[in-house]
Amino acid sequence: MPRFNIRPYIFIAPALIYLAIWIFYPILNAFVLSFFDSPTGRSRDYFWVGLGNYTKLLQDDLFLKSLYHNIIWVLLSIAIPVVLGLLLAVVLSGRGRTRLVYASIYFIPQTVAAVCAAIVWRWIYDPSIGPLNWLLETIGLTGRPWLADESIVLIAVNMIGSWSYYGFCVLIFMAGLQNISPELYDAAKIDGAGAIQRFIYVTIPLLRNAITFVLVYTIIGSMKFFDLIFVATNGGPNEASTVVGLRIYWHSMREGRFNYAATMSTILTVVILVLSVVVIRQIVTEDGD
Amino acid sequence: MNTSAQPRKRRSYPSSRIIQSIIIHAILLLFVFIALFPIYLMFNAALKTSAELFQSFLALPKDPQWKNFGFILNEQGYKGALYNSMILSTSSMILTTVISVLAGYGFAVYRFVGKQWLFLLVLTGLMVSETSVLIPVYQLLQDLGLLNTYAGMILPQAALGLTFGVFLMTTFFKDIPRALIDAAVVDGGSDLQVLRYVIMPLARPAIMSLALIEFMWAWNSFFFPLVIATKQWLMPMSVRIIDFMGRFTFKYDMIATTTVILFTPILILYLITQRSFHRGITFGALKD
Question: Is residue A258 domain-resident?
Fold first, then answer.
């Protein structure tokens, strides 16, 4: 046991205190707030309602719908930008310096603020004067009111998110692939493994860290995102693209129902935590095989 | 001649490889196009008049409307928003970076009781979103009288990137050879001297990466500023853009101009310092 030393604590104290004030205390406070209600939204008017907010939430169709949309968003984000990023990274990994050029360009949309991306794509999707429908009609297809059609709006907005996210995935997977020694591929080739087999049996298992990171990052990002959908559709049309973040904003900042919104925040935190732990444990267990 | 088989084989082998290589390049270039085309449209629209934009999205502007930028910045008063964005991003970048470097030093160099647990505690911050902490943060700022102030906008924003910062600095500092630090300590160097003269020079690229990424996050941030800065004089560019859309519905040339003003500083920063960006983002992901 080393002699007790105060110095490391002094160095980490600012970070811990800062996080305690702005992250940990708010998380716990939101949890506490979820058991109270207040007619005015002010803390002196709080009264205890127990699980009242939670039972109300479970009957709140709009909230359940928004949570469902978040889950769909997770799946879409894994199916499109993450898978795409993985494939592009594998294709690029065989190349020399050019792969860095490609990866750099793919990453550019990630540097565009979500607000900007939403604005630009709103115009691109505009049914009457937007470039996308114009392009489709030029090649003989029919355009659609992408952001005004309830059946496709969520996918249309996810395309904006995917546009800005796939380059990020390429970058992470490419860095992960760099750590795999080429001899493993040669060995697999000698054993008669085809390209697809090499991908499944060599690449994927060795990319475990990168895949875990990207999946967890995607889940967290998909559960909490706000900017993009707020600007692109604000949840519309007819709440067909509403998400939990929008509900929290709406109930707290527009209606002043802080306790109800804090209940949603708490559920959001728990869902993120549970999903992340499930993914991490799933992949870590596979490690043991 | 029995040699005829050989040339044929030689001919078919490269040609199939060429086809394969063409397909791969076509795919790679397709995604270059996908990445850049909306950005091209954005810049293009910003430099056209509404009428010209309506005629064609693709053609380059005949007479670039540079005055669009002057109109937005001066006449529409967006210069102030740009200034607010600058204050917000620079301050939260400095705050996060300094606190992260200190904590990274503590975690990477020392062994102490509760280290694992405290590090894990810091990491849980990664799972927290603005929307999860909105209400308590808002009420805290209200109680402190910090709503609609620069401090109120900066303080919680800096917290959002802090977990990432501590994590990145710790992993980087751990890679610095222990012998260098021990040598400095033996020579009588204090903690701050070790940090200043041993760690900082070696970790400068990492600190650069962190600062750049934090700057970009704060510059592009939207949710906290939207809620905390409700007075127009305080709004950063990312929030005032929204206010603009309401006033200029369908004036896509003007809307595009504002997005270009928000995006260009980050684009330039990224193009100059790509490697730094990439290093920060990938290093955090793959060291564990």
Answer: yes
Give residues with Cβ within 8 angstroms of B241, minimum separation 6.
A115, A116, A119, B258, B259, B262
Give the chain A residue whose CA is nearest to the CA of B114.
A9
Q: Is the pLDDT of residue A114 over 90?
A: yes
A201 belongs to a structural domain: yes
Give yes or no for B133 touching A (CB within 8 A).
Answer: yes
DSSP annotation of B60 reads: P
Which chain A residues contact residue B173 at CB under 8 A?
Answer: none
Say if the Cβ atoms of B112 and A9 lie within 8 Å.
yes
Mean pLDDT of A234-257: 91
Yes or no, beta carbons of A214 and B285 under 8 Å apart:
yes
Residue A53 inside a domain? The answer is: no
Give yes or no for residue B12 having a pLDDT over 70: no
Q: What is the ipTM of this complex?
A: 0.90
Interchain proximity A105–B36, CB inside 8 Å:
yes
pLDDT given at position B248:
61
Cα–Cα distance for residue pair B31/A105, rounded to 1 Å: 9
Q: How many domains does chain A have?
A: 1
The residue written with tokens 């709503």 in the block is: B147
What superfamily does domain B78-286 belong to in CATH? Answer: MetI-like (1.10.3720.10)
DSSP string, A110-147: HHS-HHHHHHHHHHHH-TTT-HHHHHHHHTTPPP--TT
The residues spanned by each domain of chain B are 2-46, 78-286
A-B Cβ pairs (cutoff 8 Å, strict): 266
Task: Check residue B4 and give its pLDDT.
Answer: 44
Task: Give the pLDDT of residue B285.
Answer: 65
The answer to whether residues A160 and A232 touch, using CB atoms and an 8 Å cutoff, is yes
Q: How far apart are CA B129 and CA A221, in angstroms?
A: 9
Instruction: Please indicate, yes or no, whether the overall pTM of this predicted structure exceeds 0.80.
Output: yes
A86: domain range? 59-288
Contact A259, A53 (CB under 8 A): yes
Mean pLDDT of chain B: 86
Distance from C-alpha of B217 to C-alpha of A227, rounded to nearest angstrom: 13
Render pLDDT for A153-210 as a digit per residue (tens, 0 to 9): 999 999 999 999 999 999 999 988 887 777 887 888 888 888 888 888 888 888 888 8
Mutate to test the interface with A, among B24, B40, B97, B127 (most CBs of A within 10 A): B127
**B110 Cα to chain A: minimum distance (Å):** 6
Tell whether the model's pLDDT for residue A289 goes beyond 50: no
CATH of the domain at A273: 1.10.3720.10
Structure-token pair, residue B260: 């270009």
Q: Which residue of A has its CA nearest to B24?
A: A91
Within a domain: A213: yes
Cα A26 to Cα A32: distance, rounded to the nearest angstrom: 10
Tell me what pLDDT residue B246 has: 66
